Amino acid sequence: MNGKVAVYPGSFDPITFGHLDILARGLELFDTVIVAIALNIEKKGLFGVPERVELIKGATNNNPRVIIDSFNGLLVDYVTRVNSRFVIRGLRAMSDFEYEFQMASMNRNLNSDMDTIFMMTSKDYFFVSSRTIKEVASFGGSVKGMVPPNVDDALKKKFSRT
Ligand code: PNS
Q1: Which of 34, 149, 155, 156 has CB atoms 3.0–4.6 Å from 67's, for a disulfide?
Q2: Which of 13, 16, 40 has the most ligand 1 atoms within 8 A of CB, as the residue to mutate?
Q3: Does residue 65 contact residue 29 with C-beta atoms inside 8 Å?
Q4: What is the pTM of this model?
Q5: Higher-confidence position of 148 and 93
């Protein structure tokens, strides 16, 4: 991997336009951004990790500056393993702040080299989250314009009642 590398971690269950906006802006700051799916055993996802990888691949058009990976265990260990020290996270609202501040502080406490870069989510997506997307899609509501078309299709398939 060449140049400056950042890790964009998350559940990405599934990836939304909010995530893609943060990713695009991260690519303006870094040469390579690794989208890293946390294999959190407590959180049973709607999509399996291989499905999430495929959805992210489709949504990022196989951009060579975007690497899609998954990790187990601590984020700080993963970031060190990929020779980075930067984490990117999006902030939607004040309500995100407390959790994010706690997480970034804990990560920095675990590894003082690590820095988290927060970006404010674009105004168009501040109400979009994977959780609300899944809820709306599960009841047959439209999530068009909030997720990329491949994710929209995948959600329709998941929740199809036919
Ligand atoms: O998209 P999410 O679910 O808000 O992402 C949360 C994530 C994956 C970034 C966070 O849970 C994480 O970093 N998990 C890895 C375990 C870890 O390092 N925990 C210590 C931070 S408190």
Answers
A1: 34
A2: 40
A3: no
A4: 0.96
A5: 148
